[in-house]
Amino acid sequence: MTKSLRLAEDLALPLDAVTQTFGILAVRGAGKSNLAAVMAEEMFDAGLPFVVVDPVGSWWGLRSELAIPIFGGRHADVPLEKTGGALVADLVVGQRLTCVLDVSELSEGDKTRFLIDFAERLYRQNTEPLHLFLEEADDFCPQRPFHEQARLVRSWENVVRRGRARGLGITMITQRSAALNKNVLTQIETLFVLRTTSPQDRKAIEGWVEYHGQAREVLESLSSLAAGEAWVWSPSYLKTMKRVQVRRRRTFDSGATPKSGSSRKPATLADVDLGAVTKAMAATIERAKTEDPRELRRRIAELERELKAKPQQRVEVPVLKAKDRATIEWAASRLEQGVEKALLIAKVAADLRAALQGTNASGVASAHTARSDAQRVGRDSGAPREVLGSRPSRGPLHTGVPTVPKGGRPSPSTLGNSGKRRILVALAQSPDGLTKTKLSLLTGISQRGGTWRTYLGELRSSGAVADIPGGLAITDAGMKLLGNGWAPLPTGEALIDFWRARLGESGKRRLFDVLVSVYPRALSPAEAAERSGMETEGGTWRTYLGELRGLELVTGRGELRASEDLFS
Q1: CATH architecture for residues 493-566
Q2: Is the pLDDT confidence value at 294 over 90?
Q3: pTM of the full predicted structure?
Q4: Domain ranges of the chain
Q5: What is the tens place of the pLDDT at every residue in 196-210?
Q6: The pLDDT of residue 259
Q7: Matching CATH topology for 18-258 and 493-566?
Q8: Following DSSP, what letter does each residue of 156-184 receive, concatenated?
C-alpha cells in the first residue's frame, strides 16, 4: 500500500487528501480528466475509498485495471434508478464501497433528483474517510441555479464547506470556471489549473487567487500551458504554489476523443465481485424497507384491526380523577402518533382507552394499572410524571395534520395574525405538544406578561388547547378554529434551513451552525463558543445557549450536541 498519492514527479499528496477539497479547472483537452483519474488511481492503490459522479459517461475506463463497479450508463455493471440516490448512499456508507455513478443516461430532472438524494443522505450518514469526484461540477453547482438546482447546490456546498467533519473530501472538475458557483469555488482549499484561455474563466480563477492572496503574475502563463501541465495553488493545505507536469493515467482513457482506427475498448476489464455488491444492495434495500415509516404505519394498521376483532369483556372500574384522565389521554394520543411504538400500541393503548370507557380488554385491569402504564409511557417519551396543574383536558387532543380542502382554499379562521394564532400554529406544527418555555420562544410572547396569561386563558376556555404532561397541546376544536391556512414543519435539510431562517444572523445562528456541522459529534462548551466567536463567561453566551436549549435544538451540558430530531 502506498504512503502518498504521487501525481507528478515533483508532487505527492498526503493520504489525508481523501478528506480535503480540490478543484481542477481547464479547457477541454488540457488534461483535467487525466489528472482526476490519476488521483483516483492513487487513492485506489492506497486503499482509500472514493465515489465518482459521472454525468457524461467518461469514467468507465477505470475498470480496465481497477476492480470497482460501475453503476448506470452504457457500461453498467449494476443499473442505476433515478429514485435510488439515498439507497446508493446507504450502500456506499455501509460497505465503504468505491464505485462510479454514471448518471449520463438519466434526464436532467432525474439527475438532479438522484444527486440531491445521494448528497443529502451521504452528508447525513457518512462518518469515515471518503472522497468524491464530481465531473462537470458546474452542471450541479451553477453560479445561477434554477428551481430544484438551488437545493442541489446547497447539498454539494454542504459537502465542500462542512464535509471534512463527516469524513468527506471532494474534487470538483470543470472546464467552465466562470459557471461554477463562487460560494463553492472559494471554499476549495487546493486548486489545480491547467491550460485556460477564456477571459471569463481566467477572471473566475483570478478571483480565487485574490481570495487566497496569491501571486497574480502566474495568471499570464495559463493560456500557454502544455497538455497535462498544471499550476498547483495550495496556500493552507500543502502550503505551496508550483508548476508541475502530471503523469499519464495507467487505466484506459475512456473519455478521450475517438480517433480513426483506434479501439474504444480496453483489452481487459478488472474483475469485480458483483455477487457481493448485489448481496450488499439487497441487504441495504431490506433495511431501508424496514425503516420506512410507510411500512411501520401499515403494520400499525394491521395490529389495530386485530385488536378490534378480539372480543372484549366489560367490567366496572372506579371513576378516574381529572389529573388521571389527562395523563391517560396524553399517553394514548402519543402512542397513536409514534410509529416507533407499533408493538406497544397493541398492548398499552387498548388498556388506556378501556380504562377511560370503563372497559378492560383483558378483563382484570383497574384505573390504577392504566394510570401506571400511562406514566410508564410518559417516562419513556421524556414527559414529566405529573400533569401540570389540575385543569382537565378540554376536548380530544389533535393527533393528525389537516389537509387543505379540495380546490386548494384554506378553511376560514377568525384569529387573523394575533398572538393566539401564533400559539395555535406552533402547537399544530408539534402534534405531541410543547413545553411552555418552547412555546413562548417560538411565538415571541413572554410568559411573564399578562398577554401570555390572557391568550392561554381564552384558548383554554374555548377548548382550543389542553394541558398535557409537561406543557400544552392543541385539540380538535383548536384545529377547527385555526383552519388550514398554515404549513407543517419541513423535514430533513429543509428543517435545518427553517431553523436557520428563524434564528437569523445572530450568535444563536452561529452556534447552531457549528453544532449542526459536526453532528453526530458533540463539542465542549469552550470549543463550541470558540468556533462560534463567543466567550463562555459572557451573559450573551448563556442567553443564546439557554434559548437554543429551550427550543430543543441543542442538548447536553458537559458536552453540547445538535438535537437528533433535526436529522431523523
Answers
A1: Orthogonal Bundle (1.10)
A2: no
A3: 0.52
A4: 18-258, 292-380, 393-487, 493-566
A5: 877 777 777 776 666
A6: 60
A7: no
A8: HHHHHHHGGGGTEEEEEEES-GGGB-HHH
